[in-house]
Write a structure and sequence with these properties.
The chain has 156 residues and is mainly alpha-helical. It contains 7 helices and 2 strands, in the order H-H-E-E-H-H-H-H-H. It is elongated and about 95 Å long.
Length: 156
């Protein structure tokens, strides 16, 4: 296993080159980017190891606050940063997630809609005006007419 950050960065970039083609122009950029990321991670690791005894401190990076991503007119996807009216099933599938996995990953409660507040309010208002629960109840209680019962009722 590589000992220094430079060796680790070289090993990671070599693995990237083996997995996919990297142009010579991008090779230097990839190496610098990987090295900088490793250096930042090492600095964070060193800071966290010194504060390990402090109460309330976590060694893992902090989760983004999902409450800040839901605004009046839009919801921001925590995976890609897109601003949408609603996080649809199709959009979440692009990230390899479904709504249940997305909620679990970011700690969003099941009761929280994955849509902008205006869209949620409009949907709620529409449901209250249509009152589908009453229509479903009356449809179940009404007798169903079949062709055989209609044929018996017609005089011959």
């Amino acid at each position: 296993m590589p000992e220094t950050l430079i060796d680790m960065a070289k090993a990671l970039v070599m693995a990237q080159i083996e997995a996919r083609y990297v142009t010579p122009d991008n090779l230097r950029t990839e190496l610098h980017s990987t090295y900088d990321t490793l250096r930042q991670l090492q600095a964070m690791e060193n800071e966290n190891s010194g504060d390990a005894g402090a109460a309330g401190e976590r060694s893992s990076p902090e989760m983004p606050d999902w409450k800040k991503t839901i605004s009046k007119y839009a919801i921001i996807c925590l995976e890609c940063g897109d601003s949408l009216k609603q996080l649809s099933r199709r959009h979440l599938q692009r990230h390899g997630l479904d709504s249940k996995a997305y909620r679990r990953k970011y700690g969003i409660p099941r009761e929280q809609p994955l849509s902008a507040r205006v869209a949620t309010a409009r949907r709620r208002q529409l449901a209250k005006s249509i009152r589908p629960w009453e229509k479903a109840h009356t449809a179940k209680s009404a007798p169903k007419r079949t062709r055989s019962s209609q044929a018996k009722q017609t005089p011959s």
